[in-house]
UniProtKB/TrEMBL annotation:
GO biological process per UniProt: protein deubiquitination
Protein name: USP domain-containing protein
SUPFAM superfamilies according to UniProt: Cysteine proteinases, Ferredoxin reductase-like, C-terminal NADP-linked domain, Rhodanese/Cell cycle control phosphatase, Riboflavin synthase domain-like
Bias-annotated ranges (Basic and acidic residues): 290-320
Boundaries of every FAD-binding FR-type domain copy: 1111-1241
USP domain ranges (all copies): 413-773
PANTHER family: FAD-BINDING, PUTATIVE (AFU_ORTHOLOGUE AFUA_6G07600)-RELATED
Boundaries of every Rhodanese domain copy: 107-233
MF terms in GO: cysteine-type deubiquitinase activity; oxidoreductase activity
InterPro entries: FAD-bd_FR_type (IPR017927), FNR_nucleotide-bd (IPR039261), Papain-like_cys_pep_sf (IPR038765), Peptidase_C19_UCH (IPR001394), Rhodanese-like_dom (IPR001763), Rhodanese-like_dom_sf (IPR036873), Riboflavin_synthase-like_b-brl (IPR017938), Split_barrel_FMN-bd (IPR012349)
Domain of life: Eukaryota
Ranges where the record places region Disordered: 1-30, 274-325, 354-402
């Protein structure tokens, strides 16, 4: 991957833009599908077909002609060219640039297609190169890309080498028409290729920076051919081609095409060219707009124009304003043209990054975070008139999850029943609640995708009519009449114009088909040729993951829209002959999964899915003709889901035909409201070990094919009655995270939360609309994952308050809370004292009631402001972001929360104190890792806050608090989209103070230990490098609040500032408050986390391990290796530089050795078989098992004075590495020093006992020469396979065998050699038991002594836990080696 000059380096083009630049769209444009070839035959020599777009003109060319040099290219110096800063260019504009001539403007063209396609035809130019997609990979640098040109023609190598000398670099593929992938990562394979190229030649081209950003040719080669014809292309002979073309059948849509007059009439009806008649006093009450009438018989003047839905279409009210707390696009008069309405040109320069305007205070209820890393505020405003349409969408941004529903009554508009149109109304209401699709139509984005020339569509009429309907559904009306929409549906299919009841699922498919065709951005592509028999056999031999991807690409070649991309389920139906096992697989797509249900009883949705995907055996009459056997054979069929869409629709097949009769199946079907996991029913991804043999575009995982696949229910359609042609349909839909509503035609009513499950899980449910609930990673998190090479995985955060999260919050005695102040600075506090002060009080709503420091707590001040009396926390229409961390330190459990304030008050009790009551709607929750939490028992205390300091530098007491802290809480934000409050823990002193003065500022650093690889806090710091931190003093109640800027340090930069760290965060404090007794709780320290690493000191502190200065180069050289058992070996090292370093060690200490030079290939190094090594510094501490310098050594052949030994088991990355080393290779590793102290103290005449578990004997080995073995007792539990370690020890110390009790496990499965070892040991050992150690073995009586003065333990965690219980009341010392 490219390596920037420093981890915090950011080129000027990535600096924040001026505050008046609009934020980018939240949905990246994308493109799926194979590239279309030009049908140019097999021309193998270079031929210039045209000199101008119009035809041939001798040897002249309209493209720039560089002068031949040594390598074919030299550039002449000219004055700088004045070009607009743009990232996209049209074919016509590119031609104009090229036509200016190379003396005025030099253009380098990059053709991003396979070499064979390039040879078939490319834009004619001598300054053109081909970069095949297969060589491009994420985070590639320009230098790395240049290395791939080794097999390219020499002139292309020279052109790419001199890329920085061109005035403009233009790249293109076959047909991509958007560069939105520049704004962030994309799941689309072709966009990933273009993004990788753009990053390589521009963002990661440090040695040869381009003069301006590279520009995408909009529409690719197809756009060039459309404008200038195929005769303008140039062919070459660098590779052969295969001109075969294939086709793909589309859905059948049959209706009598609209004639020109009819089309005009519908457009006039939609756009308001026909003025409606003014209704008279006899107008039906139902047709009058309910919420604007005073009396049905005396309408106000302004109401006369708003009677029906058609009237609303013709005469919208431009003065209406939005009242939602979210940003809903306003109703725009329909007489405006498409361009006027939706293609306003932004004044912002497009090449600059788009950032939101920073408000003076966090905006109320801002939408969820988006892919662009900024918030969406206000109606849709395109940034440039020439921007191409959005094609293949990414997964919904967090603004599209169920947590983003408006908090008021918008979206609860009913639909008039126009005569048994309840089937239509119920489907529309569920689609209206499908947020990414609703927003797509509501904000006008659909207009740029309309395909007027698609013969399968309606000339754009269906999207226009549907969009108008959606906009009015999301205005403040009680109900509207969808007459125009119904009439147009009836025009396309007469069944839907009658007053007869219809099937809701059938109507959904009908609507989706027409919307898809009108918005099918690939509809104008030439069809692909059907596979022949040989090609089908080839496809059949492919893994299903690859074959399904090929088929999806073939389908999207001519069928790609927002509808199909978000809703389409792909499945594979495989037939298998039971005679010869030949298989035949067909692939298809549907907008919904049809599930059979049994005629009686009750069934779970998982059982339905299991039945859908299970293998079925064909009966005789349905047997299949096997293509291999050439006969009718018994066979099986199995359906497998190969693509799980973003929005999943399930159709429960309740209607069963018996002859001419249709009956309804009334079986109850149970399914979860949240957390439906269909992963077991979807084909798993292709193993990573197999991906290399397939092209990257086929094996690279997509979001729709990468598990897990978890969904949350947001809408259902219920049918009441006995048959499909009778009865009544209603819709039930989630209108916000905690509320469901019933849509019964014009009547909309909220559902009692206590009856939601029963209302939804009934015998009447026919369709379920389910949204992918996996929240996407935001750009900062994606960047961290990419830099640290974290394997792709789903975000485990839930977009609501889960029941488990609510339980943890209720029992947690502490809640850390973070928010932003009026200047968008993050602050963190910690409240509580006893369980129950914070708890769920509604669906995804929590209430916090606690005593707080009203005077000096910065979070209290940010939420409520300063003042006396009762202060409101959230004013009308506002909702401030808050991050939370409920934590139960005594049990080391915690839960992270994010939400927005609903309401609250702070009531003054005494001077400086107050009672906080806060209501927060939770939008995210996540249980998380407790790895570095030190146990503490929390109890309440009365705060008595006194401000010590609110300026910098920090007072000494505050520095002392930081120096002893083993825990702090940190809050960060992703711009103004969301917040994260988390903890960081470790040994006391893990936070190191760098400076604290007026001159140098207040700066400290802390290490980021290996964690759960989510990097949510660091992801926020990547996009918004600011953090608020609170250091609580659990002993005194003092508290230090700080806010400041942050810098993420990686690899060598982290190690340079904080040695032995691969990842660290440096904090520069910009404001602080130190308050005495400001906390309403105290804490009593329990057990420290066994996972806490040693303290990592600053280089300026001159401390390594045991005082070894880092500047002295001391190494350990492997001189001997001895294998004692199959998994235990003894290694002898010789120390170099020991004298210069003044290096000494004592018995009972450990040695720290660094294997980073051998195992670490830089911070980005990643091992799939050992993910824990991701943040591994490869620094290991091993107990020294040989006597130190100057101590007596028993036996012969011991280490010399400058040598030491370690005896270790092969259990991990480093020990496995050591087990492969031979002494002859003289492995040399840095020695960081000696430390620790686990010394067996034995006074004269005292009996002491040492209990060892397996290799836990090692701390004792170096101390045996100094112990009185006649008063020493060893209790040793060991596996039978490790008995040679015992023999080795008894040979060196024969007296030890008589005072040893040995407990041997695994004897029954041991070898003959082990049995012989055991027999030999039994002759000299005082006691051997072929079992585990028991409680009765650990006592004075069992050892036949009057009293054991002290017990020493070095054993596994589970054994140590038992021993501590058995030895309760005794003097016990122990060391843990189980982590």
């Amino acid at each position: 991957m490219p390596k920037a000059p420093s981890p915090t380096y950011s080129p000027a083009r990535n600096l924040p833009a001026p505050a008046n630049i609009n934020p980018p769209r939240s949905t990246a444009r994308s493109l799926v599908g194979p590239e279309r070839r030009a049908n140019l035959g097999h021309v193998m020599q270079t031929t210039t077909l045209a000199a101008t777009p119009g035809g041939v003109d001798g040897n002249k060319t309209y493209l720039p002609q560089p002068t031949d040099g040594a390598n074919g290219v030299t550039r002449t110096s000219r004055n700088p060219v004045d070009l607009p800063r743009e990232v996209e260019i049209t074919a016509k504009k590119l031609y104009n640039y090229i036509n200016r001539g190379s003396n005025q403007l030099s253009v380098l063209l990059i053709d991003v297609r396979d070499r064979e396609h390039f040879d078939e035809g490319h834009i004619s130019s001598e300054s053109i190169i081909c970069i095949e997609p297969v060589v491009l990979r994420p985070d590639m640098s320009a230098d790395q890309l240049e290395e791939t040109f080794v097999l390219s023609p020499e002139n292309e190598q020279a052109l790419f080498s001199q890329r920085n000398q061109f005035d403009l670099v233009v790249y293109y593929d076959q047909s991509s028409n958007t560069s939105r992938y520049r704004g962030g990562p994309t799941a689309n394979p072709q966009e990933k290729v273009l993004r990788a190229l753009n990053q390589a030649i521009y963002e990661f081209s440090y040695s040869k920076p381009l003069q301006r950003p590279p520009v995408l040719l909009v529409g690719g080669l197809d756009a060039w051919v459309d404008l200038f014809g195929r005769q303008s292309l140039q062919t070459s002979n660098s590779a052969g081609t295969d001109g075969r073309r294939i086709t793909h059948r589309r859905r059948t849509l049959e209706y009598e095409p609209l004639n020109q007059e009819e089309e005009k009439a519908w457009l006039a009806r939609v756009q308001g060219d026909i003025q409606p008649p003014i209704p008279n006093e006899n107008t039906a009450l139902d047709e009058v707009e309910p919420d604007r009438r005073q009396d049905a018989h005396a309408p106000r003047d302004e109401d006369k124009w708003k009677r029906t839905y058609d009237d609303l279409l013709r005469h919208p009210d431009p003065s209406r304003t939005q009242e939602s707390m979210t940003s809903i696009a306003p109703i725009v008069p329909h007489t405006a043209s498409v361009v006027d309405l939706h293609m306003q040109t932004s004044s912002a320069s497009e090449f600059e990054p788009l950032v939101p305007v920073a408000p003076s205070r966090p905006p109320p209820a801002v939408p969820r975070r988006s892919y662009g890393g900024v918030s969406e505020r206000g109606p849709y405003q395109p940034t440039h008139q020439s921007l191409p349409p959005p094609i293949a969408p990414p997964r919904a941004s967090q603004s599209d999850t169920i947590s983003s529903y408006p908090r008021n009554s918008l979206g609860k508009t009913g639909l008039e029943n126009l005569g048994n149109t309840c089937y239509m109304n119920s489907v529309i209401q569920c689609l209206s609640g499908t947020l990414p699709i609703r927003r797509y139509f509501q904000d006008g984005s659909y207009k740029r995708d309309i395909q007027l020339e698609n013969e399968w569509g309606t000339k754009g009429l269906m999207p226009e009519i549907y969009a108008s309907l959606i906009r009015h559904l999301w205005d403040s009306y009680d109900f509207i009449s969808p007459k125009t929409f119904r009439d147009f549906c009836g025009r396309l299919r007469p069944d839907f114009k009658t007053s007869e009841q219809q099937d809701a699922a059938e109507f959904l498919t009908f609507l989706m088909d027409y919307l898809h065709e009108d918005l099918n951005t690939n509809s104008n592509r030439s069809p692909l040729k059907a596979l022949n028999e040989a090609e089908e056999r080839r496809r059949e031999s492919l893994p299903i993951q690859i074959a399904s991807r090929v088929e999806w690409d073939r389908r999207t070649h001519n069928n790609l829209s927002q509808i199909s991309s978000r809703f389409s389920v792909q499945y594979a139906s495989r037939l298998q002959c039971l005679t010869c096992n030949t298989t035949s697989t067909s692939y298809g797509t549907e907008y919904c999964i049809p599930l059979e249900i049994p005629a009686k009883g009750r069934i779970d949705i998982y059982e339905c899915l299991k039945n859908y995907t299970k293998e079925e055996r064909f009966e005789k009459e349905n047997n299949w003709r096997c293509p291999s056997c050439k006969k009718i054979r018994e066979s099986t069929r199995k359906i497998t889901i190969t693509r799980a869409p973003e929005i999943l629709v399930i159709n429960l097949k309740r209607f069963h035909n018996k002859g001419s009769q249709t009956t309804k199946i009334k079986t109850w079907v149970d399914f979860p409201l949240d957390g439906l996991d269909i992963t077991p029913f979807v084909v798993p991804p292709i193993p990573s070990s197999d991906t290399r043999q397939w092209p990257a575009r086929l094996s690279e995982p997509l979001l729709e094919t990468t598990p897990p696949f978890r969904y949350g229910l947001y809408g259902v359609v219920n049918h009441y009655g006995s048959g499909v042609k009778s009865g009544h349909y209603i819709a039930l839909r989630r209108v916000n995270p905690s509320t469901w509503a019933e849509f019964n035609d014009r009547h909309v009513t909220d559902i009692d939360p206590r009856t939601v499950v029963r209302a939804i899980h009934s015998s009447n449910t026919t369709m379920a609309f389910i949204h992918d609930t996996d929240l996407p990673w935001h750009p900062g998190e994606q960047t961290l994952h990419r830099l640290l090479q974290v394997p792709e995985h789903a975000n485990p955060t839930s977009p609501f308050l889960t029941p488990r999260a609510g339980q943890i919050l209720t029992i947690s005695p502490l809640l850390a809370l973070g928010t932003l102040d009026q200047n968008n600075n993050p602050w963190t506090t910690v409240w509580g004292g006893e369980s129950g002060f914070s708890r769920p009080t509604g669906q995804s709503v929590i209430t916090v009631r606690t005593l707080v420091d009203r005077a000096f707590d910065p979070v209290v001040e940010a939420l409520s402001g300063k003042g006396e009396g009762i202060a409101k926390v959230a004013k009308e229409g506002e909702g401030m972001m808050v991050g939370g961390l409920g934590i139960f330190l005594e049990r080391r459990i915690r839960v992270k929360l994010f939400g927005r304030t609903i309401a609250g008050t702070v009531k003054r009790t005494e001077v400086g104190k107050g009672e906080m009551e806060l209501f927060v709607r939770i939008e995210q929750s996540l249980g998380n890792c407790p790895k570095y939490l030190n146990s503490k028992k929390i109890y309440p205390a009365l705060p008595d806050p006194k401000l010590v300091s609110d300026s910098l530098p920090l007072p000494q007491k505050a520095l002392d608090l930081v120096a002893k802290a083993d825990l702090f809480f940190i809050s960060s934000s992703n711009h103004l989209s969301d917040m994260d409050t988390n903890h960081r823990g470790g040994p006391p002193g893990f936070v190191r103070s760098i400076t604290n003065s007026l001159e140098d500022g207040t700066v400290f650093v802390y290490p980021e230990y290996s964690g759960n690889q989510l990097y949510q806090t660091l992801g926020n710091l990547q996009t918004t490098p600011r953090a608020g931190i609170v250091f609580p003093d659990f002993d005194t109640g003092d508290v230090l609040y700080v806010t400041g800027t942050t810098e993420i340090l990686m690899g060598k930069n982290a190690d340079k500032l904080l040695p032995r760290s691969n990842l660290a965060v440096k904090v520069t404090v910009t404001a602080a408050r130190f308050v005495e007794k400001g906390l309403a709780f105290r804490g009593e320290l329990g057990e420290r986390s066994p996972y806490n690493p040693p303290i990592r000191y600053l280089p300026t502190e001159k401390k390594g391990v045991n005082g070894l200065e880092e500047k002295i180069h001391t190494t350990a050289v492997l001189v001997r290796r001895e294998d004692l058992t199959p998994t235990i070996s003894r290694y002898r090292f010789r120390v170099t530089g020991a004298v210069e370093a003044g290096l000494e060690w004592k018995a009972g200490q450990h040695v720290a050795l660094s294997f980073a030079n051998e195992l670490d290939r830089g911070y980005s190094h990643m091992r799939d078989d050992d993910p824990r090594s991701l943040n591994d510094d490869y620094l290991r501490t091993f107990t020294v098992s040989s006597s130190p310098i100057g101590a007596p050594i028993s036996g012969n052949g011991g280490p010399a004075e400058d040598e030491f030994e370690i005896t270790i088991r092969k259990v991990g990355t480093v020990t496995n590495f050591l087990s492969r080393q031979r002494a002859e290779l003289a492995l040399e590793v840095p020695l960081k020093g000696f430390g620790g102290e686990f010394v067996v103290e034995q006074n004269e005449g005292e009996h002491v006992a040492f209990i060892a578990g397996g290799v836990g004997i090692t701390p004792l080995l170096a101390q045996l020469p100094t112990l009185d073995l006649s008063h020493f007792h060893l209790l040793w539990t060991i596996r039978a396979d490790d008995l040679n370690l015992v023999n080795d020890l008894f040979v060196k110390y024969p007296k030890l065998s008589t005072s040893t009790s040995l407990f041997v496990t695994g004897v029954g499965a041991s070898s003959k050699d082990t049995q012989n070892d055991l027999k030999q040991l039994s002759e000299g050992c005082s006691r051997i038991q072929n079992r585990r150690m028991l409680q009765e073995d650990v006592s004075d009586d069992a050892l036949e002594v009057k009293e054991i003065h002290a017990w020493y333990i070095c054993a596994s965690t589970s054994l140590r836990k038992n021993l501590l219980a058995w030895l309760k009341g005794k003097e016990v010392f122990y060391e843990d080696f189980g982590y």
